[in-house]
Amino acid sequence: MDRFTLQSLNEARRQRQAAILITNLASGVVRLVRENDVDLDLMVEPTLAEILPQRFRSAHSGLVQTPEGDEFFLTVHVPPPRLVIIGAVHISQALAPMARIAGLDVTIIDPRTAFATPERFANVALLAEWPEDALKGIPLDAFTAVAALTHDPKIDDLPLQAALAANCFYVGALGSRKTHAKRLERLQATGVSGADAARIRAPIGLAIGAQSPAEIAVSVLAEIIDSLRKRGLTTPGGA
């Protein structure tokens, strides 16, 4: 790999951008392709152009052979997914450790110091601050999921706006359909477009009949993983 390609890869990783190193096994030539390259079809062979989007979603490296007999090794570099939970609530107590087991970096934000305590959330990054302050140190991006769980507009609404603006791969919010309808009115009154607002998963979580906080946490994590592995394929909708 030449120095320019290595520098480009390191820059992509610093910016939390997905990238794939394409190594031609016959020539040894290595190329770098980023997920957000707009001219992907012009940069690689047609067979690779068809394969790369799925590899970006799966984060799976491996050997590829084209119909012409050319062999390439794809080395996939995908940023570690993050989960930002708004609300140090009972659901969060179950969701945080499960999400960590699933490989997500977890941060919990809640300005209510009675809830945001180390005793309730051991071994989890916990910020007892208002979201507008806490998010200054946690830039949201396309590999971040945001789950708003407080049921309090003063706490939930701003991070939902920020998540939509940052194109987070998952944006979910706790609440009934009636509650969510009021939420949509508030968000659109602040300038959020109808198309962006429609990306919010609400009621949050897959429809598995969850009742307890732990069961709801399972449904939320399943929906997050589904969204991560189907980035760019599906249109989010309420569950």
TrEMBL record:
<dbReference type="Pfam" id="PF13478">
    <property type="entry name" value="XdhC_C"/>
</dbReference>
<protein>
    <submittedName>
        <fullName>XdhC family protein</fullName>
    </submittedName>
</protein>
<dbReference type="InterPro" id="IPR027051">
    <property type="entry name" value="XdhC_Rossmann_dom"/>
</dbReference>
<feature type="domain" description="XdhC Rossmann">
    <location>
        <begin position="83"/>
        <end position="224"/>
    </location>
</feature>
<dbReference type="InterPro" id="IPR052698">
    <property type="entry name" value="MoCofactor_Util/Proc"/>
</dbReference>
